[in-house]
Write a structure and sequence with these properties.
- Pfam families: adh_short (PF00106).
- Keywords: Oxidoreductase.
- GO terms for molecular function: oxidoreductase activity.
- Belongs to the short-chain dehydrogenases/reductases (SDR) family.
- This protein is an alpha/beta fold and 328 residues long.
- The protein has a domain of 226 residues: Rossmann fold, CATH 3.40.50.720.
- The chain is 55% helix and 11% strand.
- It contains twelve helices and seven strands.
- A seven-stranded parallel sheet has the order 3-2-1-4-5-6-7, with helices on both faces.
- Strand 1, helix 2 and strand 2 form a beta-alpha-beta unit.
- Helix 2 packs across helix 10 and helix 7 packs antiparallel against helix 9.
- The longest helix has 29 residues.
């Protein structure tokens, strides 16, 4: 028994020393940030908008990709001349190529220091049966295929500077969320692509960093938008499917999702900033208390045990359909 306690004590000391050393090492920032240029997608609002403003304040040159002209105008009015907002639809290869030419002409032989793939959409919410194949395509075109297209297009500029790629995935890319089918599939794909990219680009000096947010207060999770999404998806089903699931199925999902309004999105933009500006950034940033303490640990469990834990801690994620309640 004494030997076991001794070993545990030594492991605790080693872990403590490692944690302190890592914390100290990660505090060091890169010099001369004003020489760095970063491209961010999805800057109309949310995490991308916050990050663009913050990097502009730090003196970096920022290309802020916006889907809408309103997004471009808002950033142009509120930020310095260092920040250049550009129209960018990442589901259009032509739009991505046009953005590439703008950035290439600007950075020249220095290359691009950072690419932040932040643009994303939620997609329909409900039972895995409810979204159509077109729904899956729409979400994948933004969250996965658009991310891949932008990354492949800008890699030559990132290689020149031995720069960094920052991909925003999700806690839903580690633990499947039953009522977020298309979104979860897209984020699992983004996780896989990020891992492949990180290992494949190592010898070119390009590093890859994954941001895994949980639920944060952004436009994507506004309660009224979520309510319309869930109930609209249900109402679009056939009468047979609606009777099979029942309206209480949607009530329970909606009630559970909106119990927590979400965390301050500044935490996510700070993680992005660290990935771009730290001398020793992390490969993966898990951001948000629920993601760190619940969803990622669940992903470490054996599959059947993980499924059971989800049913216990978050039954609203997969309520029992009306037709199954008799044998549930």
């Amino acid at each position: 028994m004494m030997a076991v306690l001794t070993v545990l004590g030594l492991l605790s000391v080693v872990w403590g020393v490692y944690a302190v050393w890592t914390w100290w090492r990660e505090r060091e920032m890169l010099p001369r940030l004003v020489d760095k240029t970063v491209l961010i997608t999805g800057c109309d609002s949310g995490f991308g908008n916050l990050l663009a403003r913050r990097l502009d304040q730090l003196g970096l040159r920022v290309f802020a990709g916006c889907l809408t002209e309103a997004g471009v105008a808002e950033l142009r009015q509120s930020c310095s001349e260092r920040l250049q907002p550009i129209r960018m639809d990442i589901t259009s290869s032509d739009s991505v190529q046009q953005a590439f030419l703008v950035v290439k002409d600007s950075v020249g032989s220095k290359g691009l220091w950072g690419l932040v793939n932040n643009a994303g959409i939620f997609g329909p919410l409900g039972s895995v049966e409810w979204p159509t194949i077109e729904d899956y395509r729409a979400v994948l075109n933004v969250n996965l295929l658009g991310l891949i297209d932008v990354t492949k297009t800008f890699l030559p500029l990132l290689k020149k500077s031995r720069g960094r790629v920052v991909n925003v995935t999700s806690g839903a890319g580690r633990t499947a969320v039953p009522f977020q089918g298309p979104y979860t599939v897209s984020k699992y794909g983004a996780e896989g692509f990020s891992d492949v990219l990180r290992r494949g680009m190592k010898y070119f000096g390009v590093t890859v960093h994954i941001i895994e947010p949980g639920k944060f207060r952004t436009g994507i999770v506004v309660q009224e938008a979520i309510r319309r999404n869930m109930y609209g998806c249900y109402e679009s089903q056939s009468q047979e499917t609606k009777e099979e699931y029942g309206l209480d199925y949607v009530h329970e999902m909606h009630k559970g999702f909106n119990e927590d309004e979400g965390d301050d999105p500044t935490a996510v933009s700070m993680a992005m900033e660290h990935a771009l500006c730290a001398a020793h950034p992390k490969s993966r940033y898990v951001v948000g208390q629920a993601t760190r303490r619940v969803w990622v640990p669940i992903s470490w469990l054996p599959t059947d045990l993980g499924d059971y834990v989800i049913r216990v801690v978050a039954p609203w994620m997969a309520p029992v359909p009306a037709a199954c309640k008799g044998g549930a």
